[in-house]
Amino acid sequence: MQVPLLDLKAQYDQIRDEIEPVLRRVVESQYFILGPEVEGLEEEIAAYVGTPTAIGCASGTDALLLPLMALDPEPGDEVILPAFTFFATAGAVWNAGFTPVFCDIDPHTFNVTRESLEAVWSDRTRAVIPVHLFGQMAPMEEILPLAAEHGAVVIEDCAQAIGARRERGDDSVMAGAWGEIGAFSFFPTKNLGGFGDGGIVTALDETLADAVAKLRVHGGRQMYHHEMVGTNSRLDALQAAILRVKLRHLDRWTEGRRKNACRYHGGLDEVDETDLPEVLDGNVHVYNQFTIRARERDRLREHLAERGIGSGIYYPVPLHLQACFSELGGREGQLPESESACRDVLSLPIFPELGEARVDRVIDEIRSFYGH
């Protein structure tokens, strides 16, 4: 029995009859960029996340880049972000004109904490980007007061966390509705993925939202009138139409991921050679990835591959040790938890259509590798 890391065809087979009519609708309208489909998606995502507004853009990377550009940085201004995350977070900071400052992570949740942010905070810190990695939220109730104390903007990187929630008082609040800005990716592998690139910005800060809306269309709302130097980051109507269909299924798919995660926990809990994902109290984890820490990680991955089981390493090199950031002076041993995670992590298949039999197959092979 083959077990792929991800199978997008299985998802498409379920919703083919819903997708194909909306594709025809867009093609027949010949309205391919922005327009009614994008406006509809923006309204639906804003309502889902719980923010006043949402602004569609061309990618998850741009969903980070545009709000950072809106902050209009001066030379030397800094943005703090975790060293253990996908490169796009740091790339957006750099390309917006900020200096990225990397902080360490909690070894159990892989997310930043107030303490890890404070360790690298300076009087040049303009913003902080907590990444809700693998589908679990960072402790925002600790991070927001720290940022407020220093007048810094909080941009949530929600690329892997649409639908994730965290308790606040007697309620729970979605990822993307805590900081001034939330940045989401619709890359096909995400829990809500399109048929190509796409992203969206959710906003509690109306000034930043207005700036993002201008920046995505060359810096102006009125054609040929430019208030800012922006870029071309418009969301395609075809992607928006597809995502509107998929959004109706997102909660069901999330529950499928959570059930698979529960089964992994039941089958691997007694395997001492692995550390399973820990869910922070008050969080609802949506498992874009099910990432374990494994002894002899590379040998385990080879063992699984030889038996037709897919896996992934997210991520093999921490950002402070990437060659392109060498001028920032990163060195080995500087952020030990991030460096340790890069040596140990392994992501297992978790997609909602996986099914119990294939989850059990993965469990059995991991147990066999460690002699259980």
Supply database-style keywords.
372 residues; alpha/beta; Aspartate Aminotransferase, domain 2; Aspartate Aminotransferase, domain 1; 2 domains; seven-stranded mixed beta sheet; 12 helices
Tell me the distance between the termini. Answer: 21 Å
Shape: globular
* CATH structural class of the largest domain: Alpha Beta
Overall pLDDT score? 96
Topology:
Layout lengths: L7 H22 L6 H14 L3 E5 L2 H11 L7 E5 L4 H10 L2 E5 L10 H5 L6 E4 L11 H11 L2 E5 L7 E4 L2 E4 L6 E5 L13 E5 L2 H10 L21 H11 L2 H19 L5 E2 L7 E2 L5 E5 L2 H10 L29 H9 E4 L7 H14 L3
Parallel strand pairs: 2-3, 2-4, 4-5, 5-8
Antiparallel strand pairs: 1-9, 6-7, 6-11, 8-9, 10-12, 12-13
Helix pairs in contact: 1-8, 2-8, 3-4, 3-7, 9-12
What does this structure look like?
The protein is of the alpha/beta class and 372 residues long. The protein has 2 domains: 8-103 and 110-247, Aspartate Aminotransferase, domain 2 (3-Layer(aba) Sandwich), CATH 3.40.640; 250-369, Aspartate Aminotransferase, domain 1 (Alpha-Beta Complex), CATH 3.90.1150.10. 39% of the residues lie in helices and 15% in strands. It contains 12 helices and 13 strands. The chain has helices at residues 8-29, 36-49, 60-70, 87-96, 114-118, 140-150, 206-215, 237-247, 250-268, 297-306, 336-344, 356-369; strands spanning 53-57, 78-82, 99-103, 125-128, 153-157, 165-168, 171-174, 181-185, 199-203, 274-275, 283-284, 290-294, 345-348. The strands form 3 sheets. It has a 7-stranded mixed sheet, with helices on both faces. A 3-stranded antiparallel sheet has the order 7-6-11, with no helix packed on it. Helix 6 links the parallel strand 4 (125-128) and strand 5. Helix 9 runs parallel beside helix 12. The longest helix is centred in the first third of the chain and has 22 residues, at 8-29. The radius of gyration is 21 Å and the shape is globular. The two termini are 21 Å apart.
